[in-house]
Amino acid sequence: MPSYSKADICQMYSLQPRDLRKLGATGFSNILPAILVREKAILVNIEHIRAIVTASSVILFDPPQETQQHHVGFVYDLQRKLRMTNGFYEFRALEAILVNVINVIEVELEELLPKINELLEEFDGGVTPSSLSSLLNYRRQLTRLKQRVETNRDVLKQLLSASDDLASMYLMSKAMGTPRQISDDIEVELLMEHYIMMFDEMAYSVNEALNNVKSTEVVTGIVQDDHRNRLIMFELKATLCTVALSSGTFIATVFGMNIPSGLEEVNGSFATIGIVSCMISGVAMVWALRQLQGIKQSSVHIASGPHRGFPIWGGARRANSVAGIERAKILEASKDESKKLEVKPPVTPKDGKGKNLQDDKSSSTLKI
């Protein structure tokens, strides 16, 4: 297989060095996909394929090292496609490129989707750190795959929207001296629309899987928030119980000092002080738990009611006052509107004797 230098390629096919830069042939990496139509060639840079398609040949650039396995199968399919005699040479080459790109993405998608579905089923049994890490990894892979599908599809859509480029893609017609008119490009339009539809189907599958992953992340976040709230509530209850017990032990601490108070010699003083301390601790604990329960009920009522956003204490009263003011304003506005819309009865003219002329006219009309 012959090899060519960049200068030879530019001279043979009337290309500029900036055209080769679009193919990533000058050392630049992460070049966006592109299909460029020139006078004597079509430059293609999609996924792992970088090629220059002419009316009678296809020049392939060396692929990246990680895509060598895909490139070997592509070369075989390309040779088989070019041996055919039906259709235009350049379109057969372009179709072989697009078929290989779609097959590579479909293989990755078919390998990824079963793993994602299996992982999502595992979340029904519980959430573990390893499953969350795997979910994050799969989401990143789906995002990259979605970006690849959409960029490749956008390249074809952009080419399909340029009528002059579509007509210029008939390289064999130009080589034979009969270039196509701008409106005479039905073959390449059908070719582009077919593969755009295939990219759309893959984009739909990727978006569906990505939405399932995002929904699982949302539900997992809700479950973790619930667990965290339960832990916070347990810690708060333990703190309140500790405070309640400390209120009772304060009395025992006072009587435990080495200061004579005279109660040491009273019969039953120890039992009385112990009972009182326990009662104070119990009352304090019950009061604290009731206050905590009231705070929980108030927060739930405000979060689910129409007056969301007011503070817990005094929020309902403030909301009712605001609602009353709003209702008063609405009633005043309705009264003003009714006054404006009130229709006064028409004034009927009267003669000198105080009789209505309209009544006379109507009566005279009846007489006639």
Chain-wise SSE layout:
Elements: H1 6-12, H2 17-22, E1 34-37, E2 42-46, E3 49-53, E4 58-60, H3 68-82, H4 89-122, H5 129-160, H6 163-168, H7 171-175, H8 186-255, H9 269-304, H10 315-341, H11 357-367
Antiparallel strand pairs: 1-2, 2-3, 3-4
Q: In summary, what is this structure?
A:
The chain has about 375 residues and is mostly helical.
Task: Report on the architecture of this protein.
The protein is mainly alpha-helical and 368 residues long. The protein contains eleven helices and four strands. The chain has helices spanning 6-12, 17-22, 68-82, 89-122, 129-160, 163-168, 171-175, 186-255, 269-304, 315-341, 357-367, and strands at residues 34-37, 42-46, 49-53, 58-60. A four-stranded antiparallel β-sheet has the order 1-2-3-4. Helix 3 (68-82) runs antiparallel to helix 4 (89-122) and helix 4 (89-122) packs antiparallel against helix 5 (129-160). It is rod-shaped. The termini are far apart. Residues 301-325 and 340-368 have low confidence and may be disordered.
Biggest sheet, open or closed, and with what strands and sense?
4 strands, antiparallel
Q: Rounded to an integer, what's the Rg over CA atoms? A: 42 Å
Write down the overall geometry: rod-shaped
Derived structural class: mainly alpha
Number of helices: 11
Helix content: 55-70%
Q: Which regions have little confidence, pLDDT < 50, spanning 5+ residues?
A: 301-325, 340-368
Could you tell me how far the N terminus lies from the C terminus, measured between alpha carbons in angstroms? 116 Å
Percent in strands: under 5%
Secondary structure tally: strands: 4
Mean pLDDT: 76
Helix-strand pattern, N to C? Answer: HHEEEEHHHHHHHHH
Query: Within the largest sheet, what's the order of strands?
Result: 1-2-3-4
